[in-house]
Each structure stands twice: as C-alpha cells, then as structure tokens.
Amino acid sequence: MNAQVDSRPRGQETRTAPATSAGQAAQLDIRPFDSALGAEVMGLDLSRPVAPDDFKRIHQAHLDHHVLVFRDQRITPQQHVDFSRRFGPLQIHVLKNFQLQHHPEILIVSNIKENGEPIGLGDAGYFWHSDLSYKDKPSLGSLLHAQELPNEGGDTLFANQHTAWDTLPEALKTLVADLRAEHSYLAKYEELRARSPWRPKLTQAQIDEVKPVVHPVVRTHPENGRKALFVSEHFTTRIVGLPEDESRAVLAELFAHTSAPSLVYRHAWRPHDLVFWDNRSVTHLAAGTPDHLRRKLYRTTIEGDTPF
Ligand code: SIN
What we know:
This protein has helices at 52-65, 77-85, 161-166, 170-176, 189-195, 204-209, 244-258; strands at residues 29-32, 39-42, 67-70, 99-100, 103-110, 113-114, 117-118, 139-148, 156-160, 180-183, 213-216, 218-220, 227-229, 236-239, 264-267, 274-278, 282-286, 296-303. The protein is an alpha+beta fold. The strands form 5 sheets. An 8-stranded mixed sheet has the order 1-2-3-16-8-18-5-4, with helices on one face. A 3-stranded antiparallel sheet has the order 15-9-17. A 3-stranded antiparallel sheet has the order 11-10-14. It has one domain (13-303): Clavaminate synthase-like (Double-stranded beta-helix), CATH 3.60.130.10. The site of succinic acid has 9 residues, from β17. Succinic acid binds at residues 109, 124-125, 131, 142, 156, 284, 286, 299.
C-alpha cells in the first residue's frame, strides 16, 4: 500500500478580483499541494452559479494539477450532477443497483448495509485504476462527494501518471511506447466477488455492456498534450502482441512503477469534500475503511475521448 503526503496547500497560486454579476463574489484561490499532484480550490461555493471566468480557471487548474479538492461543499445530488455536466456528458455505471435514486448518473460508493443489503459499491477502488478504462471512451474525470465519513481510515490515493511516464526507465519507455493493452471490467470481478458482498452476479446484458477494449499503454492527454501511462492493476489484463509471460512481467513492472510513493497524493477526507480528478492523468486507490465504520460517497464520471 502507498504512501504519505502532505496535503497542506503550499501557497497561493492565483487570485481573482471579486467575480462579475454572472457568478459569486468570491475570491477564488487555487493552492497546489506540497505533493506529486493536487490542489485545493478555495473561495467557491458550488451550490451557487460558477461564473464563466471562474469555471475557466477551475478547468485549467484541473489540467495543471490533476486532482482538485473543494472543501465543505453543501451541494445536493442535482448540483453535483449539474456541475459535473459542465465538463461533458456523464456515464452510467454498469452496476445499476448502486445508482442513487432519481440520479442514475450517481454511483453510491459505500460500505454501509441497510437491512442486510449493501447500499453502494463498497470495494470501488480496491485496486489501482483509472475509472471506466474498460470502455471505448474511458472517463475524462470523476467527482466524488463525501456524504458520511469514518473517523479513521477511508483515504483515497492518487498517482500522477504523467510523472510515471516521465520517470520510466528509458529501456522500458522504448519497449512500451507504441504498445497497446487490453482493459476489462471483468478482470478482477470474480476475485472481488469472492471476498465481498458488493458484487452481484452480472447478467448477460451487463457482460455485453463491458466488452474488453484495447487502448495505448502510453496515452497523450487530449487537452494538455502530455504523455501518461495508461495501465492499471484493476483493469489491464495483457499487452497485445507480447507472449503471455512477457506481458505479465512488463505489466507487473509498470504497475509497481505507476503507484510509486513519490507519485502519490493521499487525500484524507473531510466532511462535504468534493474531489475532482482527471482519469487521463491519474490512477487512484481506496486505502480501505475498517469494517465497523461507515463510509458513503457519491460519484459521477464524465465521458472522455478515445485514448490515443
Ligand atoms: C473510486 O474508485 O472511485 C472510489 C475511491 C474511494 O472510495 O476512495
């Protein structure tokens, strides 16, 4: 399990004058963390309209820092959905039993059981992954909003995949630069199902909805132009064109490299945090919650591009 990291903002990066009448009169600050990635967005209340200029700065900060933390956001599920939609169309998770009622775009991530039944996906994030990388169009980004938090555990770790690429040993860079890998939702499904109550048996329609896909091992971010490694222990099953044992060995090396502690920001959740990450730049992992403590968050995912 990975690492560390200080999430205290390391200083004010930018500041706006009070916003125009189109938005809220806040002073928007974006404060990068003293970490491998991530920044805190201060001075913004997402239950109120976000002015176009502020939205532009949030968008740019997301491209620059890859994980944005908005503290103390008292927003409704509809406001969560509406803000997410400003970045693109939303995706509906294949596990429809964990949709929030009246909000199919929201996946409940929770270890809570009510009347003996899980109310959400309790093991989302058990393995390092990029959300929905098993789709033709994986997620651009995800927004996770804290509803109920344990008083111990429950952190989420984010690893910077641009830096993972930049720091990959040259020989491995040359080997994987033009390779493609298969991603499958089913890769770890049975393993997770065997150890937890959160994975129902999938119907044939669900299996058909998540057919394996092939993506480049190294993708180019469509907005910031930077390269990033795009493999994960949860969903990447094999490298196309390599013998099975070589594919396994290369993936093992990549998985270890992509989650190295030096690449990681560890988010310790506070009440009403909203965290917005870029699935094209980072992988993430749920560090785990003690079984006897309750944790519930709401997640939206925004559709991205076909990786290239
Ligand atoms: C996820 O993988 O989207 C959930 C992460 C978490 O529960 O911390």
